[in-house]
């Protein structure tokens, strides 16, 4: 989702501006994953596309993109072809939701049944699977007729439209198959379902049941309806999917200063809850903090669910902490503790790591489903000399004591931001995806931008960071076999976003050891957001913000090792107004799924008068967030 400047007319989304806390001083690059190999694993021979800004998506000529799923597409045969004028909440809950973001492709083995998740995964089937997609947030001015602009729409939305919006948020599971005509949804699949703001969920982990999670509707503090702000996510080797709750604060309205408990007031302020937010609380009182002060504490978690069991209930995982989760991705080796990495996507917030108490045991799925319930959360400290530590968020240790307002582990997890700051974690330039390269086993942090930074430090080297950067975390060990459980690591700056030839030093990009001449005039990008690795370990970065520099958001791909380390090439571009999310490969690397989010969200574009109507270009249809399936026309690996 786009992060917006603190302009009252645009403070309407599920994102909000957080506290400003950073300090530090500039420093240098240090150790990295292997960077001097002469062999080039990249194999990135596609025809690079140019920077552009128009009303279409763009790919190299040797590729095709199937429009696979669009907002409103039916997920069940009982639903008619999408007609936005006839849409109601019950029908929306049986259709693909709005503003698609994270994508997980979960292979399907036609011989495997319920409970055989490992068998499905092991099949590696790259022609049939479950496409698991987040729906991050809604934009009533682009979804419904009759609204003049985003500000008035989000503050004056009707009860009927709130119900549709809440059914359009969350997540979708759709069986898909590759046919002679390209990828298609399977509408009569028993796996197809939606997760919305009405879906019952269990709250598990170290904060479950705490009094700060209890409401009038749920005195147990262990049951909640729905999920919101679902940005990125992750997958587990035991066949479940993780979905993040990012900008949940914007779903709540009310004045934190009217809450009697000062700890709760501070908490709600830190997530941007304000009387100016969208008006869902007028029609659904749990979203008004002055009526239900604890409801926001039941959001801002990671959620785990089983896509292979359509009857299963999602669970909110409180041991992974509460903040604006971009996502959590696993670095997981058989017989060892599970490590998961994630970011808190707000200015001057932190990078986190979670370590399970027990070990991952392949095949023992009942045991494995406890691994994200019992464990320890850590926040990252990135030192000036290229070393780093993971600092544990454990009640009673260091400053996490009653004198600082922490009375138990639930307080530490609910107020993870405040705990991490007290521990001395390093405030970062909006940490988005954090993901481990399966080939070299190093971990990469996307830092999208932070125009509010006034003082640089080694890990965030630019004040007023407009273009973002990428850090490489190097745990102890050798490439391919690194110790992610260690509390110590090395780190370095993998690249600085921006144009390597920009005159303004604040916007001048630096791509590792590449000289500017090695990056084409279309190879540079700004604002890294999501990241994926293909089977060869190439890094595919999705951007959110390049329109500020005059061209579309899209995908750029590069090697992480060898002579072409950090030398991006431009592969995909979005229609104007959109950012690109997702990227996700089939196991064989021959299909790449991408989510085009908020197309035509630009200027005064509305449902009644949109900037464009991608992807249908039909005068009776609005622009629609959509997932594309990208493949080479000759069927070879994407990128080659
Ligand atoms: Fe929803 Fe952090 O982008
Ligand atoms: Ca984003
Ligand atoms: Ca994102």
UniProtKB/TrEMBL annotation:
PROSITE patterns (UniProt xref): PROKAR_LIPOPROTEIN, TAT
One family name in Pfam for this protein: PhoX
Domain of life: Bacteria
Biased composition (Polar residues): 512-521
SUPFAM superfamilies reported for this sequence: Calcium-dependent phosphotriesterase (SSF63829)
Cited InterPro entries: PhoX, TAT_signal
Disordered: annotated span: 459-481, 502-523, 604-640
Basic and acidic residues bias (residue ranges): 631-640
PANTHER family: DUF839 DOMAIN-CONTAINING PROTEIN, SLR8030 PROTEIN
Protein name: Phosphatase
Species, as recorded: Microbulbifer aggregans
